[in-house]
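Entry 14. Structure prediction run on the chain below.
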Amino acid sequence: MFTQPWIRRIGLWVSVMMLVGLLAACGGGNSGNGNGSSSEETGNEGDNTGTKIKGNEDYKGEFVLWTWEPEHPTALAAFNEKYPNIKMKRVNVAAEDISKKLQTTIASGGELPDVVRIERGQKAKIFDMDILENLEMPPYNVDKSILFDYDIATFSKDDHMISIPDDMSVAGIAYIKSLAKEYFGTDNPEEMEAIFTDWDVFIEKGKEALQQSGGKVQMFPSLGDVLQTLKGQRPEPYFDGDKLNTEMLTSTVTDLVKFRDAGIIDKLDQWTPAWNATFGGEKYIFAISPVWMPQYVIGPNDKTDDRWALMVPPGGGFIRGGSSHGIPTGAKNAELAWKWIEFTSLSQEGAVAQKADGVFTHYKAAYEDEAFTNWTWRNFGSQDIGHKFFVDISATTKDMPENINDLVLDEVMNIVLQTLAKDAAFGVEQALDRIQKELKAKAPNIVWE
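Output returned:
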């Protein structure tokens, strides 16, 4: 007579044998991958079509990157650890020369890179060349939802993304705390934001500071700083194809003249030695501050710690600078290049590695972690400028798509800005007339209405 445990074991054995027979009948003796071999036999997991799925080590070869920046060592090391058989060949090309080098390479029948870094100022020109892959199509299949909303249109052409933003470039405004305390009664960023609710208030407070200081203290060193801010905050693009949004442009010029006439902006040109030197002085209360400004501009020009603070500007955050990566159509190693873009710009592990190199990517989910957003810089003391940039400022940031006509307008605006800054008699009508004439000479295709 069998005992109870043995009866249970026999029952289990019978059930298993019946299940095996059933599976064999359903499978017809085939492993299901269409070629008689199981996915285990391929060495990698297969999908339900029997297609071999690549493991990280299966990606092999070298991709070519054109860039002006030295690749970031922590991110590159992390990428190499994940994809040990992918190598990067970096070809140094100055940011302003990328578009020209692309054109000459195409004209000569030369070989384009597998991936190209695109500086924001060159973006419209390169996009207009129609040489970049649609990254929403296979094999890339970019998930746009993991980027910030303001990224989508900015890095798209014909309603599909053709480059992926690399370095975060949201911008706020920084201020010298001692001057803010003296003239506005506080150096606290949130209290400053509550005071400066719009640019009209900013202008009036600037007039008060100018008067109290006997004309010695102004708000910004350059009218160019104001233009970059107003341009970044504009609610509509300047162009729809070749048609110029003259109402939007008139609004920008009118505001520039208002700032100029208030006497609160100095006449320095941006990016000159004199302008750089202002960050170590006590004459200007404010400075525009994109994410890269503390590390690359304020820090090198001001050796004093804990002198600055960062705030959301009146009118919200804006975009200043930054770059992206695109893949030229026909690139020989596009798959390998995409793995680099995907890792550095579209993954949490890439975001962490990039941060270690001082670069903040556009992978949105990374900024949900307070430990990730936390970032301090010596010039800003203990203020968590990472939270201010990536939470407070980013939440108010917008960006506008641009085309090649915007590059022409930028060139013309820089010309007109020189006169606006230094000639008080040069008003809105004169500025608009000059802009129209310059545009007609440089780009007759532009429609002025």
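The two ends are 103 Å apart (CA to CA).
Filed with the rest of this week's runs.
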